Amino acid sequence: xxxxxxxxxxxxxxxxxxxxxxxxxxxxxxxxxxxxxxxxxxxxxxxxxxxxxxxxxxxxxxxxxxxxxxxxxxxxxxxxxxxxxxxxxxxxxxxxxxxxxxxxxxxxxxxxxxxxxxxxxxxxxxxxxxxxxxxxxxxxxxxxxxxxxxxxxxxxxxxxxxxxxxxxxxxxxxxxxxxxxxxxxxxxxxxxxxxxxxxxxxxxxxxxxxxxxxxxxxxxxxxxxxxxxxxxxxxxxxxxxxxxxxxxxxxxxxxxxxxxxxxxx
Length: 265
Hints:
13 strands, alpha+beta, 6 helices, four-stranded antiparallel beta sheet, about 260 residues
């Protein structure tokens, strides 16, 4: 591994105002992602997009002609030293919040980025890792597209069956379209299929609430039984047990069957 500064690996360039662009098929990126599509590009090579203002953690990768607005830097990659996608993946795993130079909206300067220290293996090793990361990302993107399509299909099916009432009848044909009888429901103020009823959720299933305890009601009695709360869960997923609220043995017995934390949870 060898140490570099980002200034050795990238040239950072300013984005530009997009208002004069006409509609087209070139993606226009802001600090939150694609904003629109224009008719011209600012740069047409692979690039790492670095936030200048806004959400500093939203570093983006682009491998097609693009435009960036003035809240987002684009970069020219020194391909003799670094694989662009490897560096993009590296930077997305860094906490850049401590480099924030803004007093209100989070902001980053050229030098804030340029002074970041990066440790890199040989270029050939970078490319091998990068290829694996790209394959994984492609699989994730594919799964996300499949999930989005399935969700869209589910919403369409729900609307078709339970809003339009064209669920399959006993002959497999659309109920309403095939002349299925509808009757007026005064509670819903609309027609619904004959034989359908309006019920409360409580008549269909049991609702089991989670534990709600006021801190003042918690008793420091059994030091082996304490209550975990949201404040105990840190951003990195670890559990902070410095501040604990203990519960009585009776409370523990009452709730342990469904909310006890055991190994592996």
